[in-house]
Amino acid sequence: LVYLDMEDKENVKAQISFVQRVEKDCRDNDILLMTEELSFPRKGEEKTSPSYVSRKVKNIIEATSLLGPHTDILKLEFPGFIKTDSAAQMEENLGRLNEAAIRPWVLLSAGEKFDLFVKQVELAMKAGCSGYMAGRAIFNEYFEQAGGAEARAKFLASTGVERMKTLNNVIEAHALPWTERCGLTPADLGQAVRPD
Questions:
Q1: Pairing mode, if any, of strands 73-76 and 34-38?
Q2: Which residues contact residue 38 at a Cβ distance below 8 angstroms, ignoring those fewer than 6 apart?
Q3: What CA–CA distance (Å, rounded) separates 192 from 42?
Q4: In this predicted model, what pLDDT tens digit does every residue of 47-76 receive, in sequence order?
Q5: Which phi and psi angles does 162 have, rounded to 5°?
Q6: What stretch of H or E contains 3?
Q7: Backbone angle region of 78, left / alpha / beta, with phi > 0 → left and psi within -120 to 50 → alpha
């Protein structure tokens, strides 16, 4: 998890130094590295503050470009505002993000409401994304279930499972396979497993 404010050069320098150390350790130990980028409001700002809103998309795209060479998979925020941006603006932002993401990338849910997250996932997959990583978008209402542990378990077994199925159907229909993004064929993968 890397919090980046691309206009804060000291923040960027410190975070990239950290990422480079983790990258080296992962490569030395043959460990896959997934790096999550997060933009954040500055002190005194909220996520709805005009100053934050005006720089968020640019920050996400620039951070993605900076992190891509140092990781195997990128876990990225949606580059826009699903409630207010036009379809054309979201498509443009996602195209720019996909171009900046030189590695396979997945979309994080960032606690978005499920109905909105499904829309974000479909748009991202159509732009070149390879998957999603979600928590709160799937189970947020878990904590609101009256009736204790039994009600919460029922929520996960019903609503939670249905939400996962819905998201997985979107992935099956629209996601770019990571192998395609990396230019790998089934034969390439076979060679990696059984070099003959």
A1: parallel
A2: 1, 2, 3, 4, 77
A3: 45
A4: 899 999 999 999 999 999 999 999 999 999
A5: -65, -40
A6: strand 2-3
A7: beta
